[in-house]
Amino acid sequence: MRQIEVSTEVFAAIWSRRHEGEDDENTILHRILNKAPQQPANEAKVATTTPLGEFEMIGKVRWVDDIMTALRMLGGEATLTDIYDAVRIRRKTGGRSVTREYKATIRRTLEDHSSDSANHRAEDLFALVGRGVWAIR
Hints:
This protein is mostly helical.
């Protein structure tokens, strides 16, 4: 398979158009470009769900959804700085608001959804794995 280099903005734009079950850029681009994905004959199709168990997002996308997607794009674990950048780009390319306090919103959302935080109050989705490093649980 060939490799191409793209900017972070283009990478985020590709992933912002992801549908459930699409686990790589090639699959997403096949659909966007109206090309049938090539699947090896011996590979069975397997139904997949996202870590949130969500279906394709219809309507309002929450901060937690964008954070989860950003962490997936970053390999499942990332520093706060990388999460900030990926979420900001994802929200902008998706036409969603990015407030002046977006970094505080991201931190609060991570803490709200992590049993590693004293502020935990929602589904346990994220793990604090190091100083300023978060991962998908």
